Amino acid sequence: MHAKRHHGPKRLQGDYQVPEGFYYINEFNAHSNYHLALGLNYPNASDRILSDSLHPGNAIYIHGSCVSVGCIPVTDQDIEEIYLIADNAKAGGQDFIPVHVFPFRYNSKKSLEYFKTAAKNNPALQSFAMQLKEAYDRFEDTHEVPVILIDRKGDYVVD
Fold it and tell me: Is-contact 62 38, C-beta < 8 A?
């Protein structure tokens, strides 16, 4: 039996969804079963408000081997590059290494049209995606990582 995948961010353990939003690397695993792995701080403060309170899921990684359910799998070559960049940043004194996870490229007309069709009957998902888009657009405009805050409702706010 296969679980039905829905559109939107991870909200429940076992929902086969990848987290979407603003995270940071909280673990370096050079001995992962998936070549190399970088842990993300999922659930973050927004996820703890908006996700299932008892079983939001955990142990979300960017990792190699290009296979996964719920994590962010990339090729072994890609994880080597990402891991090296993150490790160099950490060694250089950067304790906070942000990772922004978007559902699609907002500057892709085809992706945006697909999303609008898929989310046409889901105003909550549309609102969430627009919160992410604001940060995406800010980075595209300034080439600086924006400061992201989380309000009491769990919404992302670009400062």
Answer: yes
